[in-house]
Amino acid sequence: MVKTRFAPSPTGLLHLGNARTAIISYLFARSQNGSFVLRVEDTDKERSSKEFEESVIKDLEWLGLEWDEFYRQSERYEIYEEFAQNLLKEGLAYRCFCTPEEIEKERSIALAKGVPYKYSGKCRALTKQMSQSLADEGKPFTIRFKTPGNLKLGFVDLIKGEVDFSSDDFDDFVILRSDMSPTYNFAVVIDDALMNISHVIRGEDHLSNTPKQLLIYKALKFKEPKFAHLPVILGQDRSKLSKRHGAVSISAFRDSGYPPEAIFNYLALLGMSMSEGQKEILTKDELIKTFDLSRIGSSPAIFSYEKLKWLSGQYIRSYLPLERICNDIEKFLEYSFDKEYLCKILSKVRDSFDTYLEGANRLKTFAPTTISLDEEVISELKPLLGYLQELLNLLEKEGFSPEGAKRAVKTLQQNHGIKQSELWKALRLSLTGERQGISLDIIFELLPENLIRERLIGALRC
Ligand code: GLU
To answer: Fewer beta carbons within 10 Å, N or C terminal of the chain?
Structure first.
C-alpha cells in the first residue's frame, strides 16, 4: 500500500516550498488510494515551538490537507533510544565522550584548513569496557553511527533519477544527542520504517541526507522506501525563492486574502509538465485524479506571483460559490455589512478583484460612511461643482437609480453642452473618492439613496 508523509519541523512558519512538498505527498498518496501521515519533527528543542507547530497545522488544514495518522517525534524518544542501544550492542554504533569544546576545536581546525568538517573518530577506538565504565561514571556522551568506509551508496530517485554517493563522504555522525534525543537522520529512518512509509517525498535539500539514511536502513535491517526529491522553487530571477521576492509564508497569503483553493491548485501544478490544452484550474478531486509523479520536472520550478494572483482572481470570480466569498471576505472588511446586502454587492463586483483584500478595498464604496476626498480629487472636482449641484437636483426628481442618473446626465448635457464623461467623472469622484472602480451603474443600483445624497452634498462643500 502507498503511504506518504509530510514531516515538518516546527521551527518557523509553513512556507511555499514546504506547503508544496506537503501537497505533492498528499496528492500522490490519495491518487494511489493510499494514506497520508503528518509527523511533527520536533527533536530540535531549541528551535522548535508549540506555536509554530500550531501554525503549521492550521495552515495545512486551511489548505485543505487531511491526514490519516499524526505523530510527534518528541513523544517517541524511547523508541529511538531502544534502536540506538541495539546498534550499540551490535557494535554498529559507539558512545562518543568528546566534549562540545573538543568538537568545536576540531571544527575550527577544519575551517582554518578550508576542508569540510568530519569527526575524527577518536572515540571509535574506545574498548567496550572503557566505554561502559565512562558511561557508568556518569560522563555525558552522544551515540555515533559507525559509518563504514568505501561503500557505494546509490539509489534511484523518482524525480532526480540515479543518485550516487560514497560512504567516504560522511563521518561517524551522531544519532543520539547527549540528552538522548535523536538527530534528524536517525529518527526519520526509524519513523519512516515503523510507519510503513512507502514513498518519501521531500525537498531536494535533503538529497544529501538520503545516503546517511540508507546506511541506517541497512544497519537496522529495514526495507528502504522509494525516494522522490522535489526540485527547489526559484523566483523569476532564478535565485532561491525568499522574502526578497515577496510573501513566502502561507499565512501571509491567507492574510492577503488568497483563497486556499487557489494556492493548493497553484502549488500542485508548479513545476509540472503540462500537456497541450490541459486545464489549469482544477479542484482537489480533479488534481487527485490526474496526479502523475512522473510529470514533475527535475529542474527548479519558477514561482510566479502574478500567476498565483491571477488564479486567485479566477477562483473568486468563477469557481467559488458566492456564499463562500461573502463569508471569506468578511474578516477583511473595515465595516460590517448586512450579510444579504454584502452578497448582493459581491454578486455584481466579484469579477473586479483578485484577492479578498483588494475586494474589501472595493467594498469601501458601499460602507455607510462619508467619503474623504483627497487634494487631487478635490481639485478635479472643483470646476464641476456647479454641475454637481444641478445633478443632485435632477436626481431628486428623476430618482436615485441607474436610470435616474442616466436621465439626469443626459439632461445636463443637453442644457449645457458639457460632455457626459465629465459629468460621470464628477459623480464618481464624489461618490467613491476615486477615479476608477466599480461601475456607476452598480453604485446607483446598490448604494442607498440617503448615502448618495449625503456624499454629493459632502462633495459640494469641498
Ligand atoms: N523535518 C524535515 C524538514 O522539515 C523533514 C525532512 C524529510 O521529509 O525527511 O525538512
So the answer is: N
Among all chains, which residue has been given the C-alpha cell 524511547?
78
Report how far Cα 112 is from the mean position of its chain's Cα atoms. 39
* Ligand 1 center to 297 CA (angstroms): 21
What's the whole-number mean pLDDT along residues 132-148?
97
In a 13 Å sphere around the CA of 70, the CA atoms on its Cβ side amount to 6
Atom of ligand 1 nearest to the CA of 201: 8
Locus of grid cell 446598490: 446
Distance 267 CA to ligand 1 centre (A): 18
What's the pLDDT at 350? 97
Whole-model pTM: value is 0.93
Our answer to whether residue 243 is catalytic in this structure is yes
Query: What mean pLDDT is reported for the chain?
Result: 96
Cα 300-199-275 angle, rounded to 5 deg: 45
Sketch out the chain's domains with CATH numbers. Answer: 3-72+184-234 (3.40.50.620), 78-176 (3.90.800.10), 243-320 (1.10.1160.10), 321-368 (1.10.8), 369-462 (1.10.10.350)
- The Cα–Cα gap between 323 and 397 comes to 37
Q: How many CB atoms lie within 10 A of CB 296?
A: 22
Q: Are 378 and 426 in contact (CB under 8 A)?
A: no
Report the 10 Å Cβ neighbour count for 70: 10
